Amino acid sequence: MMMNAIQFTPNRNPENTLEWLAWAAFLADSKKALNVTLLETKNVTQIADYFLIVTGESRAQVRAITEEIKEQFKHADLPHVGDERDANASWCLLDYGDFVVHVMLPEQREFYNLEGYWNHAEVIEAETWHALAKGLGLNWEIEVA
């Protein structure tokens, strides 16, 4: 019996911002992030075209999600332009110019309420970013042959 491992690195580098965002969402999801939310914000703010907002259940998980995205993107030659976090790792932010990744504990996510603040932004459905991630060759499933 042969098993194929979950693939965290795409078969090719993403070609556009939405593909990078889908990869980031995939990486967060692979680290068991909760409430993975993608917002298209380009028509509502000049801060970034997209936000990825996820919840980690512990400070260690918030750090692990953030570091996984940061390291994978560094190896793919997409360095972040900003990295902000509080001393307790209750929230972290990675700024990639066209998109921003927010990783927070549940209390911080509720307090900052980014989805509520940006409620006029378009939500990118999970089916959309899942399809983009699969198109990059990323895989959630462990296949048994």
In a few lines, what is going on in this structure?
This protein has 145 residues and is of the alpha+beta class.
Descriptive account of the structure:
This protein is an alpha+beta fold and 145 residues long. The chain has one domain: Beta Polymerase, domain 2. It is 36% helix and 24% strand. The chain has five helices and eight strands; from the N terminus they run E-H-E-E-H-E-E-E-H-H-E-H-E. It has a six-stranded mixed sheet with strand order 4-5-6-3-2-7. Strands 1-8 form a two-stranded antiparallel ribbon. A hairpin with a 3-residue loop joins strand 5 (91-95) and strand 6 (99-104). Helix 1 packs across helix 5. The mean pLDDT is 90.
Describe how the helices and strands are arranged:
Layout: E1 3-4, H1 17-30, E2 34-40, E3 50-55, H2 59-75, E4 82-85, E5 91-95, E6 99-104, H3 106-112, H4 114-117, E7 122-124, H5 126-135, E8 143-144
Parallel strand pairs: 3-6
Antiparallel strand pairs: 1-8, 2-3, 2-7, 4-5, 5-6
Helix pairs in contact: 1-5
What tags apply to this protein structure?
36% helix; globular; 145 residues; Beta Polymerase, domain 2; alpha+beta; two-stranded antiparallel sheet; 6-stranded mixed β-sheet
Number of domains: 1
**Low-confidence spans:** none
Shape: globular
Q: How is the largest sheet built, in terms of strand order?
A: 4-5-6-3-2-7
Largest sheet: 6 strands, mixed
Helix fraction, binned, reads: 25-40%
The CATH class is identified as Alpha Beta
Instruction: Please write the string of helix (H) and strand (E) elements.
Output: EHEEHEEEHHEHE
Gyration radius, to the nearest Å?
Answer: 15 Å
Instruction: List the total number of helices.
Output: 5
The CATH architecture: 2-Layer Sandwich
Strand content: 15-25%
